[in-house]
């Protein structure tokens, strides 16, 4: 290369620009509307680190993650905290959380994607997902106490993308984690779990996720609009889920999910949902067992203590 | 027609060339440093432990009051009484305990501007943003509030405000909400071993700062198994109802 410094410099500027992207603190009005304690607007998108559930703290409906945190939040909304003597480490800085940028690369799905509960974009494409009597749908669509798996379709999520594995952190449902092993087959023997066993591959610009080995379970589903628990859920070990994930635009993600569970006696059905980039950043610590009251009195703490 | 721009271009881009060169010289070394260490993988404590020790192998320098609490926890544990341990009711064990609790593995997923710790223990997660300042403090949190940066081949995590509801180890070593942890993660043995040297400062609990070292061995990717605390407790006859059966059909 005749002028390597030019390429080097261009690379430096490119990444330097990314590293120094403008992060604008939320205005008081935005904070009030969201209800969180801190956050930022990046490229016009809110990256609020307080999840919807945590936003309930200020309304008194959720006690907070730890007892002492709840008490502290009541007394002190959180001024910048300095380092204590001897602690070393970085100084306190402006709040803002991680700055995310929607990639133009159709194969780069990384980052936070917002929830159907905000946008209401869930759509049944074909088939039915219920039948007379107890409604029967996949646990992938369930918010089932602290134990169950939750779906793309209900919650926001954050995608961590590496070549060998795509990791999905589900947002409003606390610490749910899905791991999609890329370009490998399912293991010969799969022990059923709530998350199931997921493998993925690319078909053009579409990520295809194939999931089997989902633990048969019964639970209840929280309606994404009313937030009321309205449906009983069931799945059998024969449940097979195929999710086709693609970008409609750099900041828009479409997921079409096909649910096929012969064990329920139902025909396969498909759901479609579209998510916006970065509207909710599910980073805050949400511990299901610490906010078990959300799921009804007596759960976890009441039962175990 | 094509030669005119070529004659003019070098003159016009001279300042740009200088700017590019300067930016490249300044920024690229940082990028090289930042990308040099990739801690991603599945890790498991090399030698199972229940109690933290200093780098000298001694009991941490606890204050008399904290020592009394620690001894009470250990005595209760020896009687099978774990009522002091909130992890027994599925609350997070905290940091650094979750990394070695039950000698179960955890996964590190490192991407762009974040390092995510994904523990097998009750599928807990801990985010460490890569940034050089602490955000506004909103804790304490079960895992504290962490930020990380790279110093050469070491990933340095600054963790403040780990909830005093947790214990530092499985024997019940107490600490306060004001604890500060500085965790220095390095790869060793050609990437087969992850070492965490942890500097602990908590004047309310310890008479002086102290260090401990944890070593983890690399496990195959995908070797994390699903753990649901309530289901586990049910199987141990310590939880009355399987979560998946909690609601009637």
**Interface with most residues:** A-B, 81 and 82 residues
Largest sheet of chain B: 9 strands, antiparallel
Please bin the fraction of helical residues of chain A: 10-25%
What is the helix/strand order of chain A?
Answer: HEHEEHHEHEEEEEEEEEEEH
Question: Which strand order do you get reading across the main beta sheet of chain B?
Answer: 4-3-2-1-9-8-7-6-5
The helix/strand class of chain B is alpha+beta
Question: What does this protein structure show overall?
Answer:
The complex is a heterodimer of chains A (305) and B (249). Chain A has 305 residues and is of the alpha+beta class. Chain A has helices spanning 4-19, 28-34, 52-55, 67-75, 116-119, 301-304; strands at 23-25, 40-42, 45-46, 111-113, 123-126, 157-161, 165-170, 177-182, 197-203, 206-212, 217-222, 229-235, 240-249, 252-260, 269-276. Residues 1-65, 72-96, 117-121, 129-151 and 292-305 of chain A have low confidence and may be disordered. Chain B has four helices and nine strands. Chain B has a nine-stranded antiparallel sheet with strand order 4-3-2-1-9-8-7-6-5.
What is the compact description of this entry?
Chain A is of the alpha+beta class and 305 residues long.
List the helices and strands and how they pair.
The complex is a heterodimer of chains A (305) and B (249).
Chain A: H1 4-19, E1 23-25, H2 28-34, E2 40-42, E3 45-46, H3 52-55, H4 67-75, E4 111-113, H5 116-119, E5 123-126, E6 157-161, E7 165-170, E8 177-182, E9 197-203, E10 206-212, E11 217-222, E12 229-235, E13 240-249, E14 252-260, E15 269-276, H6 301-304
Parallel strand pairs in A: 8-9
Antiparallel strand pairs in A: 1-2, 2-3, 4-6, 5-15, 6-7, 7-8, 9-10, 10-13, 11-12, 13-14, 14-15
Chain B: H1 3-36, E1 41-45, H2 64-78, H3 97-100, E2 106-111, E3 114-119, E4 125-129, E5 145-151, E6 154-160, E7 180-188, E8 193-201, E9 210-219, H4 229-235
Antiparallel strand pairs in B: 1-2, 1-9, 2-3, 3-4, 5-6, 6-7, 7-8, 8-9
């Amino acid at each position: 290369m005749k002028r390597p410094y030019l390429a080097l410099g261009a690379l430096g500027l490119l990444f330097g620009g990314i590293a120094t992207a403008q992060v604008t603190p939320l205005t008081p009005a935005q904070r009030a509307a969201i209800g969180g304690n801190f956050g930022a607007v990046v490229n016009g998108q809110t990256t609020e680190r307080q999840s919807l559930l945590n936003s309930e703290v200020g309304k008194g409906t959720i006690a907070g993650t730890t007892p002492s945190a709840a008490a502290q939040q009541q007394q002190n909304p959180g001024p910048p905290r300095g380092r204590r003597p001897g602690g070393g480490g970085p100084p306190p800085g402006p709040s803002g959380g991680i700055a995310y940028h929607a990639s133009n690369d159709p194969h780069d799905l990384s980052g936070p994607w917002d929830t159907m509960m905000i946008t209401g974009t869930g759509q049944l494409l074909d088939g039915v997902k219920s039948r007379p009597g107890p409604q029967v749908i996949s646990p992938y669509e369930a918010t089932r106490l602290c134990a169950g798996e939750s779906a793309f379709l209900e919650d926001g999520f954050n995608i961590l993308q590496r070549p060998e594995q795509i990791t999905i952190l589900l947002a409003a449902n606390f610490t749910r984690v899905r791991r999609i092993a890329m370009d490998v087959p399912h293991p010969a023997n799969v022990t059923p779990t709530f998350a199931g066993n997921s493998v993925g591959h690319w078909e053009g610009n579409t990520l295809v996720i194939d999931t089997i080995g989902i633990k048969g379970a019964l639970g209840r589903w929280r309606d994404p609009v009313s937030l009321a628990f309205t449906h009983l859920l069931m799945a059998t070990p024969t449940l097979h889920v195929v999710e086709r994930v693609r970008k409609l635009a750099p900041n828009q993600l479409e997921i079409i999910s096909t649910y096929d569970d012969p064990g329920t006696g139902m025909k396969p059905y498909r759901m479609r949902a579209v998510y916006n980039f970065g509207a909710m950043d599910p980073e805050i610590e949400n511990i299901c067992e610490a906010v078990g009251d959300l799921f009804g009195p007596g759960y976890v703490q009441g039962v175990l203590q | 027609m094509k030669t005119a721009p070529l004659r003019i271009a070098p003159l016009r881009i001279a300042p740009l060339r200088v700017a590019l060169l300067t930016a490249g010289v300044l920024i690229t070394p940082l990028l090289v440093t930042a990308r040099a260490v990739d801690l991603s993988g599945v890790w498991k404590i090399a030698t199972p432990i229940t109690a933290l020790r200093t780098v000298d192998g001694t009991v941490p320098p606890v204050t008399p009051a904290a020592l009394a609490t620690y001894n009470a926890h250990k005595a209760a544990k020896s009687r099978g009484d774990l009522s002091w341990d909130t992890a027994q009711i599925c609350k997070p064990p905290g940091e650094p305990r979750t990394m070695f609790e039950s000698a179960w593995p955890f996964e590190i997923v490192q991407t762009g501007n974040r390092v995510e710790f994904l523990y097998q223990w009750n599928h807990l997660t801990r985010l460490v943003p890569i940034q050089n300042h602490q955000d506004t403090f909103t804790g304490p949190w079960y895992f504290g509030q962490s930020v990380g940066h790279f110093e050469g081949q070491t990933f340095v995590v600054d963790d403040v405000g780990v909830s005093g509801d947790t214990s530092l180890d499985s024997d019940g070593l107490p600490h306060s909400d004001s604890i500060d942890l500085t965790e220095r993660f390095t790869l060793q043995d050609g990437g087969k071993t992850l070492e965490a040297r942890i500097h602990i400062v908590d004047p309310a609990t310890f008479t002086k700062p102290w260090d401990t070292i944890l070593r983890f061995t690399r496990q195959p990717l995908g070797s994390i198994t699903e753990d649901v605390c309530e289901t586990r407790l049910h199987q141990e006859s310590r939880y009355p109802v399987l979560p998946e059966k909690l609601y009637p059909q």
